[in-house]
Amino acid sequence: MKILVPVKRVVDANVKIRVKPDGTGIDFANVKMAMNPFDEISVEEALRIKEAGLATEVVVVSIGPDKAAETLRTGLAMGADRGILVKTDARIEPLAVAKLLKAVIAAEEPGLVILGKQAIDDDSNQTGQMLAALLGWPQATFASKIVLTDGGATVSREIDGGSETIALKLPAIVTTDLRLNEPRYASLPNIMKAKKKPLDETTPEALGVDVTPRLTVLGTVEPAGRTGGIKVASAAELVAKLKEAGAI
């Protein structure tokens, strides 16, 4: 069985985001980029399934500019077998991502697709669900445990009321939660080997997908800064201050 893992290039989770002075978007100049943390979990889970002898190949795919190849190389250094870059400089929305992945899946024919539940840049949490709908495949979101069975998979996931376990028939779509695993670090020898692993390139046009944005970003603003706190001398003064603030 082949496992396909989409990965996204995002601003490193430890970097403070800067907004452009004109409010037209995020300033990416001299900003460290990295693989989306949820996608690292997806790659790790796919590799564990392969190491258990339940999969024969792990393919990572990314959609973005030339530099997205660096993100694919990270996945290859972790242990993935090969990568696919859908090269585009356009702003890609979740629906366009799902359509592009559908086209890649039609060519690759994987038995399982594992995605991060969301990307930390836009937090849309839409691509996995849209992809499952476009393919007509069963899906399991926010997976905290994945167990492959004969021709299927059992997925445990957290819900508002506790947890649930669902059974899927393969091929299927699974999106990962933080509790699924702890991603490995790529060793130096594997980083060197990753440079020689195959990395194919294609474009949205070659896949026959229109990626024209359907949404317009009106503006981007930074969150308001936190104001300093105050000290009160008594419970009565505390209640009075809370009433002034409209908290009670």
Automatic annotation (TrEMBL):
Among InterPro entries, the record links this protein to: ET-Flavoprotein_bsu_CS, ETF_a/b_N, ETF_b, ETF_beta_N, Rossmann-like_a/b/a_fold
Q: Please list every transmembrane segment annotated in the UniProt record, as residue ranges.
A: none
State the UniProt keywords alphabetically.
Electron transport, Transport
**Which species is the source of this protein?**
Kaistia dalseonensis
**What CDD domains does this protein map onto?**
ETF_beta (cd01714)
Which Pfam families does the entry link to?
A: ETF (PF01012)
Superkingdom of the organism of origin: Bacteria
Entry similarity comment: Belongs to the ETF beta-subunit/FixA family.
The name under which this protein is listed is: Electron transfer flavoprotein subunit beta
Domain spans labelled Electron transfer flavoprotein alpha/beta-subunit N-terminal: 23-211
